[in-house]
């Protein structure tokens, strides 16, 4: 048992040195890492403010495409307990707030039964809907809609 402990004590400095060399190597190669936008990952990019819609809806590029969100949702709470989108877009509030109402599919549960409240499978709006932003493309987009 003492021999095993002695051999382990001899091997420990070699392991530490190898770990330090690996960490230094990773730090050197990490300096050359770039994001898809061509800058260092920790560099802040200037992006135009989120576009705000002026009474017209965005053109959809394919059938059943979820509509884009025409306003910022940065500070919106959307979690298991709360969904701030519903303050304006729930059928009960949309008329008073002048906001588009959710489609009836959002009130249909997984068994196809219409309910008074938003179905749990449609609760997290940003799962399908995203705010429109004027941001540089990460990669070239070759998509063409059928309508073009």
Any idea of the CATH topology of the domain at 75-135? Flavocytochrome C3, Chain A, domain 2
Based on CA atoms alone, the radius of gyration comes out at 26 Å
Helical content (DSSP H or I, runs of 4+): 25-40%
Residues in β-strands, percent: under 5%
CATH superfamily of the domain at 75-135: Flavocytochrome C3, Chain A
Which class of the domain at 75-135 in CATH terms?
Mainly Alpha
Give the overall average pLDDT.
Answer: 76
Quaternary status of these chains? single chain
* Largest sheet features: none
What does the model show?
With 148 residues, the protein is mainly alpha-helical. The protein is built from 3 helices and no strands. It has helices at 2-30, 86-89, 94-97. The longest helix is centred in the N-terminal third of the chain and has 29 residues, at 2-30. It is extended and about 60 Å long. The model has no long low-confidence stretch (mean pLDDT 76). It comes from Cereibacter ovatus. Residues 1-23 form the signal peptide.
Helix-strand layout with pairing:
Elements: H1 2-30, H2 86-89, H3 94-97
Keywords, please?
148 residues; mainly alpha; Flavocytochrome C3, Chain A, domain 2
């Amino acid at each position: 048992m003492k021999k095993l402990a002695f051999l382990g004590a001899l091997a420990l400095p070699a392991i530490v040195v190898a770990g330090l060399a690996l960490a230094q190597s990773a730090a050197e190669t990490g300096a050359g890492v770039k994001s898809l936008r061509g800058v260092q990952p920790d560099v802040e990019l200037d992006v135009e403010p989120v576009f705000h819609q002026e009474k017209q809806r965005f053109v959809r590029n394919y059938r059943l495409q979820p509509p884009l969100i025409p306003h910022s949702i940065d500070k919106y709470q959307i979690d298991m307990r709360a969904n701030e989108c519903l303050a304006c877009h729930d059928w009960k509030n949309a008329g008073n707030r002048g906001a588009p109402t959710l489609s009836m599919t959002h009130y249909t549960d997984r068994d196809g039964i219409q309910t008074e409240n938003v179905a749990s499978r449609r609760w997290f709006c940003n799962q399908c809907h995203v705010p429109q932003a004027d941001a540089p493309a990460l990669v070239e987009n070759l998509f063409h809609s059928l309508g073009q």
